[in-house]
Amino acid sequence: MATMQRVAQSSVSTSAAATSSYGGSSSCKGPEVVISDQFPVGLRVLVVDDDITCLRILEQMLRRCLYIVTTCSQAKVALNLLRERKGCFDVVLSDVYMPDMDGYKLLEHVGLEMDLPVIMMSTDGKTNAVMKGIRHGACDYLIKPIREEELKNIWQHVVRKKWNENKELEHSGSLDDNDRHKRGNDDAEYASSVNDGADVSLKPQKKRSNTKEEDDGEIENDDPSASKKPRVVWSVELHQQFVSAVNQLGIDKAVPKRILELMNVPGLTRENVASHLQKFRLYLKRISGVAQQGGISTSLCGPLEPNVKIGSLGRFDIQALAASGQIPPQTLAALNAELLGRPTGNLVTAMDQPALLQASLQGPKCIPVEHGVAFGQPLVKCQSSISKHFPQSIVSVEDVSSGFGAWPSNNIGTAAPSSGLGGLSSQNGNMLIDLLQQQQQQRQLQKSQQQQQSTVPEPSRSINVQPSCLVVPSQSSASFQAGNSTVSVNQNGTFCRTPVIDYSLLSSQSNNSSLNIGQVSDGDLQTTGVLSGYIPPTSLSPSVSSCSLNADNCTSHQVQTSSMTFKASRHLPGFVHSMCDVQGPFGVTKSGDVFDQAHFSNLGYFNKEACLPTRFAADEFQLPMSSSSSRGKVFAENTGTRVKQEPSMEFVDNVKVGIPMLQQFPPNDLMSVFTE
Amino acid sequence: MLGLGADRLRADMNRLLAFLFHQGILDEQYLQLQQLQDESSPNFVSEVVNIYFHESEKLLRNLRSLLMDREFSDYKKMGIHLNQFMGSSSSIGAKRVRNVCVAFRAASEQNNRAGCLRALELLEHEYCFLKNKLHELFQIEQQRVLAAGVRYPMQN
User: What integer best gives the mean pLDDT of chain A?
Assistant: First the structure.
């Protein structure tokens, strides 16, 4: 792990210990000799506690663990220290109650600005206090008195965080992924968890990112332990208003008071706007940083920083993950929590459906949808505005958002009763039509229908695979879509539909999903303004169907296994899965793994605000993917044989294509991206 | 005899410690504290305890002044002080002080002024008792160190 190496190095070179001055607010330790190659040694810990008794004890304990300890008795000083010396600390231990700054606030800042694991500590072990800490993004919560044994283990948070980051990037098959995957397939539990556990787990993640603008609006999602104080719900619409107000004023001249006046929303206070503005600025800053960097590697880095949650994610179910993904701390996406609530509702309804298989399928699919929703939310605004611009667009913003929640459930309901393929296909067709109309692309519709028809014969093969494979593929498709979905609401809607289709026909599933994706991408393209990539997606679905046939032929071409950018790989998995559906015989588990990874990565990806450009890139990537698949059936085969490596192959192509796209995107004014 | 004196002082110390534990004045966290004392910080326990005394007296003063304000007692601030008091007390293993803090905080959360006053009295009493006993302990320890010429008696 990178962390370990880094830490080891640092410990070798110089590690500190020191004398700390208690009267002073902070004391940084001078160098001391602690030489060891063993990992936890040399971990750089910043301890913040206004109680200097505890501070001294903690310092001693941590030093006994051979960590490099810096103590600080004031939160503000600690924050300054963290800002001044970015990268000089691996983990932060913070008290909750401090006179100058609330520990939660510090936590929030740290999460927002430097993405360090923060461990909270307090004498107050009440559940709601702990919940609050977790919600704000604490990776652990220690109850005083703290024992040395507890501190010996804090390095795990550092490793976990880095590991998750790496996982996101490398999408290396990891235990976590597998676990999540399994859990995802667990339909029954899943359903139940959706209702109670997931909600709770979802919320915290949400909270951590947007502590101030968390939502009370959705009662269904509110867990009892949530703070009673009403908070501002930065819904899509509200945020839209906010953005337009900022645009009107100009980002440099935008001050909370003026924004508030322009927004003219009752109940909104200057403080609310101020904090939101602060976050928004940070977000813009981060995005612009990523944009400037350009290139794949840099874009990757962007995501790395932000993903604070992954560590915490590991503990939660997939849904929780999704939620976390939705609620990336620094992401503005997090602001739009409303939509999240709806998807969960959909999930529940979906779970009610009789067939377990379906349920299992739906579950995973729904989750991705949620992801998509969450991610899409920030973008949703853009789209909505875009749709407005489009003369023919039927869907208004509100319709989209509301339809969002409604669609999936409806689809599911219809799907369950209707076993007939025809019905399903027709539904799809309708859906597609809607989308097409919106996007003014009728060709796709025809194509898609054709595809579906063509796919019908294939199902027989796929049927064999279905029972085992089905779940995974569906997930994959869903997750895949989720990635795409970030851009537009419409896409999400399509996603939901795809799952429905999947139940009836596996092969059709893959096709459908691909089709949907294509559409989605189209939508994205229109919105984004990148026209070139979009056409390919439509071709995608047909290609997929053809791929399944090819798979039988199985001429495995070993393509270059080149280390791709992670994002691409993620997207690819989704693709791969669709392929897998057809090719059933392939290791289901493998595909599943990939799948999960794809899922996971998508989540992480989206979580980050910085990802905005990257998301677009992802969409673009998909386009190339689709095109590649359409070109070469070989690709499909490859994917079948080697699930894991395939992604990378495809990716390469994608990367080439996608990168330019990426660069194009960032240049656009961020604000404009938001609004337009 | 030097050695004999040291042994006797050691026995005194152990007796006192046993008493403090038995009375629930100290708990195992204090032993943790003792274990943290090593070559790099030979006087760690007394150093921490002195910090604790210093801070606690400040907190007690603050608490009293908050409660003495007849018109308006800032219970929230009181709660914050008590939280800190609890944290530090539990960190050095001052069990009884901590327990009184818990009761105090409960009273302050209910805005129970009378309860707070009672708790404050008790807290001051417990604190003084603890302080005396710990001073006694440190004194014996010091004598023992002098007598035995051993620096780290706790470690053996």
Answer: 51
Q: Where are the beta strands (DSSP E) in chain B?
A: none
Among candidates B40, B48, B87 on the partner chain, residue whose Cβ is nearest the Cβ of A123: B87
Please compute the mean of the pLDDT values over residues A112-120 and round it to a whole number: 88
Domain topology for A233-290: Arc Repressor Mutant, subunit A (1.10.10)
Range of the domain at B53: 28-33+44-135
Question: What whole-number distance in Å separates Cα of residue A190 and Cα of residue A496?
Answer: 18
Q: How far apart are CA A138 and CA A394, in angstroms?
A: 43
Extract the tokens encoding A114: 């430097």
Q: Between chains, do A57 and B48 touch, taking CB under 8 Å as contact?
A: yes
Cα of A148 to nearest chain B Cα, Å = 8
CA distance A352 to A188: 10
Q: How confident is the model at residue A510 (pLDDT cuts 50, 70, 90)?
A: very low
Of A17, A51, A122, the CB nearest to B88: A51
Cβ contact A348:A299 at 8 Å: no
Best of A29, A48, A56, A150 to substitute, by most chain B Cβ atoms within 10 angstroms, is A56
Higher pLDDT, B67 or A390: B67
Number of domains in chain B: 1
**Which residue has 């392929």 as its token pair?**
A579
Q: Which residues of B touch A53 (CB under 8 A)?
A: 48, 51-52, 55, 87-88, 91-92
Interface test with B, best of A52, A55, A58, A123 (most B CBs within 10 A): A123
Q: State pLDDT tens for residues A569-621.
A: 333 333 333 333 333 333 333 333 333 333 333 333 333 333 333 333 333 33
Which residues of chain A form CATH 3.40.50.2300?
A: 39-169
Angle, CA of A14, A16 and A17, to the nearest 5°: 150
- C-alpha dihedral (A435, A437, A441, A446), degrees to nearest 10: 80
Residue of A nearest to B58 (CA): A51
Dump pLDDT digits (tens) for A145-185.
998 888 888 988 888 888 888 877 665 444 444 444 433 34
Pick from B96, B76, B77: nearest CA to B86: B96
Max mean pLDDT range (A489-493, A626-630, B32-36): B32-36
Q: Do A122 and B87 touch (CB under 8 A)?
A: yes
The CATH number covering residue B95 comes to: 1.20.120.160
Q: What residues 166-185 of chain A have any CB closer than 8 A to a CB of chain B?
A: none
Closest CA to A518 of A488, A548, A547: A488
- Which residues on A lie below 8 Å from B29 (Cβ)? 145, 147
Could you write out the DSSP letters of every residue in A491-533?
HHHHHHHHHHHHHH-HHHHHHHHHHHHHHHHHHHHHHHT--TT
Query: Which residues pair with residue B38 across a beta bridge?
Result: B41
pTM: predicted TM-score of the whole model, two decimal places: 0.42
